[in-house]
Amino acid sequence: MKIILLYGGQSAEHDVSIISAFNITQHIMYHYYQVQPIFIRRDGVWIKGAPLTSPLQASQQLILTAGETAQWSDHPEQTSIGVEIHPGSIYESDAIVFPVLHGPNGEDGTIQGFLEVLKMPYVGAGVVASAAGMDKIVSKYIFNQVGLPQVPFEAFDRQSWASEQEAIIQKCEGNLLYPLFVKPANMGSSVGISRVENSEELRAAVETALKFDHRIVVEQGIIADEVEVAVLGNDDAHVSVVGKLVKDTAFYDYDNKYLNNSVSMQIPAEIPESVAQKIQSYALTAYRAINGRGLSRVDFFVTANNDIYINEINTMPGFTPYSMYPVLWKETGLDTRDLVEELLQLALKQFEVKQLLTVERI
C-alpha cells in the first residue's frame, strides 16, 4: 500500500511540518509501504517527489524544487527535485494520505474536506473536528458546553478592533487581569502569540496577532504549569500518561518549541495521581466533544492548588523528534514506529466506517 505524505503547506508552521514529516518517514515500515511525498510550497504549489522506499538522511532533502524529473538529493544539506502537479492528481485507489500539515490550510479542515471529496482515507480528524480544534474561539465555546474549566477570555475580530479599539481594551482590562495572552484564533505552535503586561503592549500584541488571523482571543494569564496529554483512537480513543513542560521562561514560544529545543519534558508529570486522572478524563471529553479521530494532543494548565484549566486541543500535533505527542506515547509504552502504524490503521478503519453510510433516501 502507498502512503501519500502531505507536508509543508501555506501557514506560518510550514517549517514545523517539514520536520514532522521527516520524523514520520524515519518510522514507517517500508517493507509494507511505499511513501509518496508531496511537498506544498508556501505559495500553494504542490510538488511531487520521487517515491521513498527507505528513510532520507535529513529533513532538508524533503524540501522540493520544481523540475522535469523527481530526484532525491544525495547531500543531506541540499534540497531535492520534484515535479509540479495538480492537487487532484494525488488520487490513487490503494493509498492512505498522511496530511502532516500544521495550522491554517492544513489542520483547519480545508485539506480534510479536499480528501473527503477525493474519497481517500486519511490520518487524523475529519472536517468539523479539524476546523473546531484549529479555531480557539469555537473550541472554547464547545468546551464550555461540555463543562470543561477554562481561564477567562475575550474574543473579537478585525472589524471590531478597527471601530471599537478603546472599548475592547476597556473590556479586556475590566474582565481580565494582567498578564494577558493575545492569540490569533486560527494558528498553532505559539505563532503570533504574545504575553502582555499593560494596555500599550496589548495594543501592539493585537496588531501582531492580526497579521495571522482576523479573529483574536485574549486570555487571562495564570501562574500554572503547562501539561499535555496525547489521545489516540477513533470511537475507542485512549490517552497517554500526562507530561509537563519544564521551562525557564514564562512563555513557551515558537523558537523554544521547534528551533532552540530549550524546553524539557517531565514525563510522567510529577502531579498527584488523582489530578493526572482528571486531566486524562478531561482530554477524552474534549476529544469526543469535537468528534476527534486518529490523534490529538490536549493541553492544560495546572495551578499550585491543582486547579485544572483546558487550554486547547491540537488535531495534528507536532511530530518532530522532540514534540510532546510522540514522546508521550513512547513513555506510555508505544514507540513511534508502532504509533505511525496505528495511525495508518485508524485511518483505514474510519474510512471503512464512512463507506458504510448510505447516501440514499430511506
Structure description:
33% of the residues lie in helices and 24% in strands. It has ten helices and 15 strands. It folds into three domains: 2-122, 3-Layer(aba) Sandwich (Rossmann fold), CATH 3.40.50; 152-220, Dna Ligase, domain 1, CATH 3.30.1490.20; 224-353, D-amino Acid Aminotransferase, Chain A, domain 1, CATH 3.30.470.20. With 362 residues, the protein is an alpha+beta fold. The longest helix has 20 residues, at 336-355. Strands 4-5-3-2-1-6 form a six-stranded mixed sheet, sandwiched between helices. The radius of gyration is 21 Å and the shape is globular. The chain has helices at 14-25, 110-118, 127-134, 136-145, 158-175, 199-209, 254-259, 273-289, 324-332, 336-355; strands spanning 2-8, 34-40, 46-48, 64-66, 80-85, 95-100, 153-157, 180-184, 194-196, 215-220, 225-233, 238-246, 264-266, 294-302, 308-314. The mean pLDDT is 94.
